[in-house]
Design goal:
Number of strands: 5
Radius of gyration: 14 Å
Low-confidence stretches: none
Mean pLDDT: 89
Structural class: alpha+beta
Helix content: 10-25%
Number of helices: 2
Strand content: 25-35%
Order of helices and strands: EHHEEEE
Distance between the termini: 29 Å
Length: 80
């Protein structure tokens, strides 16, 4: 985990939104692909819920993106 700088997003649909308050707006997080506007009602939800997160680096070792993978057996659905 430490060597590859892996992360984990818990099974909580507003975990990132809650931690980003005062630093990033929901619109900024959505533009970055981290959250999504709810189709029904108002507000946003986190996109990578209950996923292992992998940083993506360029040839200079700089973080330029990320990927997330669902864990086996996850049936939490999407966009709750």
């Amino acid at each position: 985990i430490a060597q590859f700088k892996l992360g984990f997003h818990p099974d909580n649909w507003t975990w990132l939104l809650d931690r980003a308050q005062g630093r990033f707006t929901p619109a900024q997080l959505t533009a970055a692909g981290l959250t999504k506007a709810r189709e029904e009602g108002t507000g946003y939800f986190d996109y990578f819920v209950n996923r292992v997160m992998f940083p993506i680096h360029n040839e200079r070792g700089e973080r330029v993106g990320f990927g997330g993978r669902v864990l086996p057996g996850d049936d939490s659905g999407f966009g709750k």
